User: What shape does this take?
Amino acid sequence: MKPLTLRRVLWSCALLAAVLLGIVLLALRLGAVPFSFGDLGQNLWWLATGQPDKISTDFRLIMVDIRLPRILLGIVVGAALSVAGAGFQALLRNPLADPYVLGVSSGAALGAILALLAAPALPLMTPAAAFVGAAATIAAVYFLGRRQGQLDSGTLLLAGIVTASFLSAMIMFLMSTLASRELRGISFWLMGDLSASLPRGLLWILVAGFFAAAGAILTTASDLNVLLAGEREAMHLGVDVTRVKLVVYISASLLTGLAVSVSGAIGYVGLLVPHVMRMLFGSDYRLLIPTSALGGAIAIVLADTLARTLIAPTELPVGAMTAMAGAPVFIYLLRRRLA
Amino acid sequence: MIRRRHSFLIDGTVFIQDTSTRIHLALARAFLVRWIVASAIGHLCSAGLPIAFAIIAPLALCGAATPQAMRGQNTATSSALEVKDEMGRAVQIPQPVRRIVSLAPSVTETLFALGLGDRLVGDTDFCDYPPEAKAKAHIGGPISPNIETIAALHPDLVVASREINRAESVYSLERLGIAVYTTDPLSVEQVLSSTERLGELLGASDAGRALTANLRRRLGELDHRLAGLPPKNVLMVVWLDPLISVGRNTFMDDALRHAGARSVIESPQAWPTIDLEQVVRLQPDYLIISNDNKRQVQRELAELQSRPVWRRLDAVRYRRFIVISEALSHPSPRLVDGIEQLARALFPSEFNADAFLRDLQVNCATPVFARASEPVLQSTQMGACR
Assistant: This one.
C-alpha cells in the first residue's frame, strides 16, 4: 500500500469533487423543463454575484426552488448512505454489510407509518418519526447482537436481518389491517424517492447531522484500519475496540436514519460505493471515508437525474435506478472477488 | 385474508391492499397494480428491483410526453379567495382562476363537465376522458406527478384528488406557493356537491348548478323507477388477482346502491382484499366489472371460468357478469352514467323500449348541456351489446 499523505487525500477528494460539480451542473441543466447551458451559466452567475433581480421567475422557480434543493438533498443522502455503508463494513468486517441489512430502514419506515396514522396533517412529523424509528431499531439490534457482553459480527448481522424482517412484517400488518387513507404514498417512499420537497429547516438539520456523524466516524478511521486485521489484534495494538465499534455503529446508524427518513429506502449505494472507492483509491479508511462521501453523492445525483429525465415528465423512484445500475456492478464485483 | 396460492406474492399482495387499491380506481388498472406489486416485491428482495423497473419502463413510456413549452407568466393576482378544501386544508385560490392543472382523471373529467376544459393547462398521463384531455400537456402519473413540469405551466390552481394523489405532492406544490385544492368525495351525493363547489370556486357556478341539477334529476328518476324492487346482490370486482372489492363508505359502494345493487362485501376498509372462500359463501347474483378494455375483460372472464374455486360460484357458472364502462369507477359527474348503465343491466325489464325512448327524448330536449344527452346514447349501445 502506498503511504497515505495529506496531499494524496486532498488530490483524490478534489478529483471527486470536480466530478461531482460536473454532475451537479448536468443535473441542473437536465429536467422535464429544458434550459440551455448558456441560460444556466448566465443565471447562476447572477445568483452568485448577488444580482438576484435579474434572474427570470421561471429560472428561480424551477432551478432554485425545485432542482437545486433536490440535488442538495441527493448529495447529503448519497454521502450519508455511503459513509454509513463503509462504517458498517469495517465494523462487521463483512463486505455484505449495508445499512439495509441491519434493519435500520425498516425501522424508519415503521416510524413513518405510525406517524402518518397518528398525525397525518403534520408534514414534518413523518421524517421525525422515521428517524426515531431508525434510532430505536439501532438500539434493539445493538443489544440483540451482543453475546457475552461482546459485539459479535455474525450475531449482529443475524440480529439485523431478523429485526428487518420482523419490522417489515409489522409494516405489512399495519398496511393491511388499518384503513388509513394516508398510507398510500408509503410504497413509493419505500422504494426510495427524492421528489418530495423538504422544509428548508429540515435540510439544514440533515446537513448538520451528516457532518457530525461522518466526522465522528472519520476520527476513528485509523483505528478502523487496524480493526481490519481482527479485533484481538487491534486490541493488542492498543485500540479501544469497544469504544471504536460503538462510535461507528451509532454514527453510521444515525446517518442511515437521517437518509432514510427523508428519502426512503435507496438500496445498493451504501453497499457499492465503498467497494468502488476501495478499488480506485485503496482501502485506507482515512481516505475511504471522504471519498465514499463524495462518491455516494455522485452516485445518487446521477441516479436521480436519470430517474427524473429518462421518461420525463413521468418520474421513476430513484431506488429503482440505483438498483438497476447497482445490481450488475455488484455481481461484477462479486465475481471478480471469487476469481 | 392473505391468499396462499403463491406464497412469494404474499408481501406484494398485502401492499396492494392498502396502496394500489385506492389508487387504481381512477387509473389504468393494469399499469398500477402490476407496478406496485413489482415494486413491493422489488423492495422486499432488492434483487427484484430491476424486474420492477423493467415492468415500469415500457408501460410508463407509453404515457410519456414531451414537456410543454413555457407559457405566459403568472398574472399578478388581484385577489384571492380563502376556502377550506375537502381535506380541511385552508387554500388561497387566486381570482380569477385562468390556468388549472389536474392531478387525477376524475378531476379532469369534472373540469370538462363544468365546461372548464379550455382553462385546463395540464393533466396526468392517465386522463383519457373526454378525448380532448389526451391533448393537454401531461404532468406525469397521479402518484408521481412531475413538480417541475407543473410549476412550468404556471397554474393558478392545482386540483388534486385525495383518492389517488399523495399528500407529499400536495405539500411540495404548496411549498412552492402553488395553490392546491383537494377533492375527496365518499358518496354519490358528495361527488355532486364537490362538483358544484368546484364550479363555484372556479367561476362556473351556473354551469355547476345546472350540471348537478340535471344529474340529481336523473338519479331521482332512477330511484323512482327502482323503488320497491329488491336490491340485487353483487360482487364488485375492482381487481381480480388478488380479488379486491369495495368496502363501505366509498363512492362506489354508494353508486352500487343507487343502481339497485347491494355489495355482498361489508368491510370497513375502502378497498378490501377478499378471500375467495368468503365469496363462495356469500354467492353473489352478479359479478360486476368496470373496465373499458373489452379484450382484457374477456380474457379475464374466460380464464375465471376455468379456475377451480371460481367455477363453483353460481354467477360464474351461469355467466352472470356485468361489464360496465369505467364511468362507474371514477368519482366524477360521469359516475351517474355508470350508475344508469348498471341499473339497466341489472333490471332490463324496468327499462323497456317505450320507457327508454321517452327518456331519450327528455334528455335530448334538455338544452342545458349537449353532454347530458351523451350518457343515454352510450347506454343504448350498452343495452344493444348485451
